[in-house]
Amino acid sequence: MAPASEQPDREVIGVPEVLSSLLVDGGLTRGTVVSVAGARSVVTALVARVTADGGHVAVVGASQLSLLAAAEMGADLSRIATIDDPGADRVEIAAVLLDGLDLVVLGLGGLSVVPSRARVVMARARAKGSVLMVLDGTWPGVQTHITAEVTDYRHAPVRRSGYGRIAGFSLRVRARGRGRGRPGDELRVDVIQRDGVVGLVGRDVGETVGEQRVRPDLRVAN
Q: How far apart are CA 205 and CA 219, in angstroms?
């Protein structure tokens, strides 16, 4: 298994540029636990960035995370290990993987981890310089919470409200935590494809003539 970092002095794992302003350190600080809730595009973009930068990632118990979507965002799939069915103790599997990888994405499946167990795993993450990212559950003592909400879809070409090919969508992304995100901060970003690569861009950058935004609660037809 590859070492957790080819650059031991590096303390922050890079994130997509548009998200860096949400995090005080400008990225995912090694040795911490991060929770992500809501739209999966943020997790996918983070996985893509880590592997594109040469890092190694494991995805444990999060089969809903699309490797195809990650590849479309520029991920190096050879640097991603997946364990769709980690068995009865997924937390232990994730803890072991922290020993050799930069980022471990753990789907908790609704599990609430007890504080004593969380502290042990968090200490391991600090010792190994890895980042544990938890989804779909409760993990006490998380340093950074990131939430992403779909606010509208982009249709092109415009025909009439709620109709047209989906050309992307927009997210409201928030971060909060103990020194790792500023409470109340949020970003509006677009998830769009450019030059064959899907990515996150600032809301203003994503504006394109000939496209129309439609709220998620409106009818969408391809």
A: 26
As given in the structure block, the two tokens for residue 36 are 């992500």
On whether the CB atoms of residues 165 and 220 are closer than 8 A, the answer is no
The encoded tokens of residue 60 equal: 């444990």
pLDDT for the residue numbered 192: 83
Please give the structure tokens belonging to residue 113: 């981890």
d(CA 119, CA 117): 5
Compute CA distances 157 → 61, 73, 132, 162, 168, whole Å. 38, 23, 41, 11, 12
Reported confidence tier of residue 5, pLDDT bands at 50, 70, 90: very low
Contact yes or no for 154/170 (Cβ under 8 A): yes
Q: What is the mean pLDDT of the chain?
A: 82
**What backbone phi and psi angles, to 5 degrees, belong to 93?**
-60, -45
pLDDT at 203 over 90: no
Q: How far is CA 76 from the centre of its chain?
A: 15
